[in-house]
Write a structure and sequence with these properties.
3% strand, mainly alpha, ETO1-like, two-stranded antiparallel ribbon, globular, TPR repeat, 6 strands, single chain, Ethylene-overproduction protein 1, TPR-like_helical_dom_sf, SKP1/BTB/POZ_sf, three-stranded mixed sheet
């Protein structure tokens, strides 16, 4: 997100210089044994003088007192059990995974278009479930916001507002209360308690600064205030009394009768009480004070002067005599008293007992906005997890699939294998009514049971998901059978799946688990061919080569996946291999990068804490001061080595853990590597560690921008500037404006903001980024010479990515040779350069372009431009079927908007209007406002109608 405009981080396969003649002293490199027991004894005997051991549950932590001999280190770590092929397994997706994702997207879009306005929120929730498994979290958050936008009832608003807040993990922000209003109506706790359909105003700033009674009706209006003050003047109108004990409460019969139909019948019907002036009311469980309050409410319709105990009596009376208006006002009154966990816990039982919908909603809101911590309260856990608790919530109208969907996802993130997670999923299953809901919850129950190693139950739930229509759950069934010792049955299941459906990479990947030798190798090769983004085939091939003591080729193999898809498990494998080769500096780099992605990661089959391994490896590399680290960071940044940069920042944070600027830098790098969750965690830590108010506001602005709140992000930047002018505040505002307001007037303002930023103090790395962004805006407003100056200045301070922008300017000036040369320089300097090859292809002839794009795809198969270019060339050569096949192959593992749009256009040009409409609908499901696709969709639909008429 916060990367340079038009200047993406380049990636390429990393190759390590390995001395082919070098030998390791690891005599145990047969990669045998995954257990830790032998390793522990080995360490005790071998390193008794240099290593002290500490046990923590099932792993042995290592810390070196003095420098440890490199050969000893290699053998010691190898003793933990180096990786074996039978110890790694492919990942099973825990989200919905339709067999034909494109058709499913198209179907959802069609149903969304034909859906009534009040039903759109549920449709967007289904879309959320589909997008949850995609790598881009923006799609999920966008659907979640749309679901909240179209929410009607209070329950749905409360859950979705809390979920949106949970996505930013605001519970981790120091000084932020769960019930704090963030200024947006969509997430405001007060706005969530107002039941109405108002999508046009859901994105407006909330009205928390107003008297809350304006929205909830809790407090009386001016008319009520006037009427209540006239109580003494109306005593002459009293025409009856309620007797409670020795007290007599004078009332006006008409007013009391107007409270409800039962009171009306009692006072005006054919009963004896209707003819009495005094009615004995002692047996109706209300005090004299309570009845006096009821009399006053019958006149004023207000509770403004009553204590909570009296209002509680009124609520009970309202339930007993069906006084809807009085119950509603009492309900709102109590809801207004809920503001934290203590008040929510105190009032929840009253709400449940008295069937107070709004009060229970207010209590639920606190619990949901306090997640995941609130689930550690046994009373809250019991309410949500037990069948009895769900039934009590259902009676008040607050048990729903949506509620338990949110709760179960939060629980899975907190502790996947916990009993709490299982029970919440079970309650979610009890609330599931639609087919997709049952598919999701049954599949997730199977997934959790598989992780808990309860294989029989896992198989049962996966079978239930399959019966509900989720064919992908066959993978779970096969894995469960395999774990129970039925390998051949698992193989047959996957074999039949490949036969019955269009083959996908994940099918062959899973089948490879259940075969051996050449057949396994062929399945893994086919899996990579169909879906080059699957990590398991690379990991398996790398470990296989390592088992043969071919560590160099093993590293080269794992580099292929790390060149475009960074994950902790792959980084761990490479670190493992590098340790065996005694390449400790490279291993330390990978472990530091790994811990940036997942600080709690356990190395070596879960037996060694990553931080302890860093400590041990650090004794075998040259120590660096903070100044040395800054120099290394400049070098890594200029060579476009994001993993290396991550490692340096991790080292710097170890030396200076409270440095918010470093945390912010870390978040930028993580976003470049598409590690959104880790990036947001770093950004929250930066915000918490900010030394000043103006700095904290900037980080809050980035958090808002990254979660879809652009206007609010700009407001934070402006507030920061009002306190102190700073580079980061001006840069934030400029960046958000450039992304959201592409018109020429806004571009000129962005130029001013970036120039202001450059006048403020900052380090060279950020200055280079700002110069590059400024140059990009100059290009947009056709000031090419200014752009060249900016890019050149950026290059002078080692901002290597500026080569790409400079090439673009040369291309616009029709200097293609200079543009090509600039991209060649970037390829030579950058460690990851798939983007550079892709961009250079635009500045050379057709054959050279093919070669560059082929290299770009090899280095990063997730880049879509090469597929689109190759398909367009095939169409130009009248090879329509091959062009469609090229796009279809890419769409099968990356359902990208541009790919779908292009395939729709190709289908249209070939006269296949049905397929064109399907692809348009799928693309619009991803982005319903994509102008080019909307235009194509309308044209194709018109042609389809004309064909039907003829």
């Amino acid at each position: 997100m916060r990367t340079l405009k038009m200047m993406e981080g380049c990636k390429e396969t990393q190759v390590y210089a390995i001395n082919p003649s070098g030998t390791t002293t690891t005599t145990n490199t047969g990669f045998g044994g995954g257990g830790g027991g032998g390793g522990e004894k080995f360490l005790e005997n071998l390193l008794s003088n240099s290593v002290r051991s500490r046990s923590n549950r099932n792993f042995q932590a290592i810390q070196s007192k003095d420098a440890v001999n490199s050969a000893v280190l290699a053998e010691a770590l190898a003793s933990y059990g180096l990786p074996k092929t039978d110890q790694i397994e492919p990942h099973i997706d825990f989200c919905l995974k339709p067999m034909n994702f494109v058709e499913t997207l198209a179907d959802v879009y069609c149903r969304m278009e034909g859906c009534a306005q009040f039903g759109k929120s549920k449709m967007f929730l289904e879309q959320c479930a589909l997008f949850r498994g995609l790598p881009d979290p923006k799609l999920f958050r966008k659907c979640l916001m749309s679901a909240r936008l179209h929410a009607v009832d209070v329950h749905t608003k409360v859950v979705l507002s809390a979920w949106l807040r949970f996505e930013r993990r605001e519970d981790e922000l120091i000084g932020v209360s769960a019930m704090d209003c963030c200024g947006r109506s969509m997430e405001c706790p007060g706005s969530a308690l107002v039941a109405r359909y108002n999508p046009e105003s859901a994105t407006d700033p909330c009205m928390c600064h107003r008297d809350r009674g304006e929205d909830t009706g809790i407090y009386m209006d001016e008319e009520c205030s006037t009427s209540s003050s006239r109580g003494g003047d109306e005593e002459e109108d009293f025409d009856m009394s309620f007797c409670i004990g020795d007290d007599e409460i004078r009332c006006r019969r008409f007013n009391i009768a107007s409270l409800s139909r039962p009171f009306e019948v009692m006072l005006y019907g054919s009963f004896m009480d209707s003819r009495r002036e005094k009615i004995n009311f002692s047996k109706n469980e209300i005090s004299a004070k309570g009845m006096k309050a009821a009399e006053m409410f019958s006149r004023t319709k207000s509770l403004v002067s009553f204590d909570p105990e009296i209002v509680l009596e009124l609520l009970s009376l309202a339930n007993k005599f069906c006084c809807d208006k009085m119950k509603s006002v009492c309900d709102a009154y109590f809801a207004s008293l809920v503001f934290d966990m203590d008040s929510a816990m105190l009032l929840l039982d009253y709400g449940l007992e008295e069937n107070a919908y709004l009060l229970v909603a207010a209590c639920l809101q606190v619990f949901l906005r306090e997640l995941p911590n609130s689930m550690h309260n046994p009373n809250v856990a019991r309410l949500f997890c037990s069948s009895e608790g769900k039934d009590r919530l259902a009676y008040v109208g607050h048990a729903s699939f949506l509620l338990y969907y949110f709760l179960s996802q939060a629980a899975m993130e907190d502790d996947l294998k916990s009993n709490t997670t299982v029970m919440l999923l079970e309650r979610m299953g009890e609330c599931a009514s639609e087919s997709w809901q049952k598919q999701l919850v049954f599949h997730q129950l199977g997934y959790v049971m598989l992780e808990r190693k309860e294989y029989k139950d896992a198989q049962k739930w996966f079978e239930a998901a399959l019966e509900a229509g989720h064919v992908y759950s066959l993978v779970g069934i096969a894995r469960s059978k395999y774990k129970r010792g039925h390998m051949y049955k698992a193989y047959k299941l996957m074999n039949s799946l490949i036969s019955d459906y269009t083959p996908s990479g994940w099918m062959y990947q899973e089948r490879s688990m259940y075969c051996q030798g050449k057949e396994k190798t062929m399945d893994l090769s086919t899996a990579t061919e169909l879906d080059p983004t699957l990590s398991y085939p690379y990991k398996y091939r790398a470990v296989s080569k390592a088992e043969e003591n071919r560590l160099g080729p093993a590293i080269s193999e794992i580099n292929k996946i790390l060149g475009f898809k960074i994950s902790p498990d792959c980084l761990e494998l490479r670190a493992w291999f590098l340790i065996a080769l005694e390449e400790y500096e490279g291993a330390l780099r990978d472990v530091r990068a790994l811990l940036t992605l997942d600080p709690r990661y356990m190395m070596f089959h879960g037996k060694l804490q990553g931080e302890h391994l860093v400590e041990l490896l650090s004794h075998n590399v040259q120590p660096c001061s903070q100044a040395d680290c800054w120099m290394q960071l400049y070098d890594q940044w200029s060579s476009v080595d994001d993993i290396g940069s991550l490692a340096v920042v991790h080292h710097m944070l170890a030396n200076d853990p409270g440095k918010s600027l470093l945390r912010f830098r870390q978040s930028l790098l993580l976003l470049r590597l598409n590690s959104h969750k880790a990036a947001m965690r770093s950004l929250r830590e930066a915000r918490n560690q900010a030394a000043s108010e103006h700095e904290r506001l900037v980080y809050e602005g980035w958090i808002l921008y990254d979660t879809g709140y652009c206007e609010e992000a700009i407001a934070k930047a402006e507030e920061s500037v009002s306190i102190q002018r700073s580079f980061e505040a001006f840069f934030l505002k400029a960046y958000v404006l450039s992304e959201t307001s592409p018109d020429s007037e806004s571009s000129l303002y962005v130029i001013q903001l970036l120039e202001e930023a450059l006048r403020c103090p900052s380090d060279g790395l950020r200055k280079g980024q700002a110069l590059s962004n400024l140059a990009s805006v100059y290009v947009d407003v056709d000031k090419l010479d200014n752009a060249i100056d900016c890019y050149t200045n950026a290059l002078n301070i080692k901002h290597t990515r500026a080569h790409q922008g400079l090439a673009r300017v040369y291309h616009l000036k029709d200097q293609r040779k200079l543009a090509y040369d600039e991209m060649t320089k970037l390829i030579e300097k950058a460690k990851y350069n798939a983007s550079a090859y892709e961009k250079r292809s635009e500045y050379c002839d057709r054959e050279m372009a093919k070669s560059d794009l082929s290299m770009a795809t090899k280095l990063d198969p997730l880049r879509t431009y090469p597929y689109r270019y190759k398909a367009a060339v095939l169409m130009d050569d009248h090879k329509e079927a091959e062009a469609i096949a090229e796009l279809t192959k890419a769409i099968s593992f990356k359902p990208d908007l541009q790919l779908l749009h292009l395939r729709a256009a190709f289908h249209d040009s070939m006269g296949d209007l049905t397929s064109a409409i399907r692809d348009c609908e799928a693309a619009l499901c991803l982005d319903s406002n994509h102008a080019d696709t909307l235009d194509l969709y309308q044209k194709v639909q018109q042609r389809a109608k004309e064909q039907l008429q003829t």
